[in-house]
Write a structure and sequence with these properties.
Elements: E1 14-18, E2 23-25, H1 28-39, E3 44-49, E4 58-63, E5 68-71, E6 77-83, H2 86-94, E7 99-100, E8 103-104, E9 115-122, E10 125-132
Antiparallel strand pairs: 1-2, 1-6, 3-4, 3-10, 4-5, 5-6, 7-8, 9-10
Length: 133
Amino acid sequence: MCIYGTIPDPVAVGVWFRDDYEWRLYDVTSAQLIKTAYVDAEKKLDLTIKSAVHTGGARYTVDLRTMRQTNCASGMQRPVKINMPEAAAVVHASKGVPMTNGVQSADETSEPESVISSELPTANGYVTVSIAF
């Protein structure tokens, strides 16, 4: 799959990924995990998400520094966008994380100090989450 054409960024509040032809919202559980990791100034988040395309679940890493999602099996990358109410962005900035146009920037060569993993049930199956910090 490829990303086709140029489309405007989403403006509605939510956690979005760029599909082949449009921006799509993450499922509620994944979106909340991504927002929490972002507000807490985490560097990356690993998710296993079941979907209509990946009924057995597919592993993704969301890099919260570059705002890109990578499929761990195929290496396919897609842009990610987090549109939060102003108050949440202020909390994120208060963590001491430099922000440029609402996107966290950090030293990409630094290694995470520790990783926490957990499997959470969802309405459609489960989501496995790993947070590096």
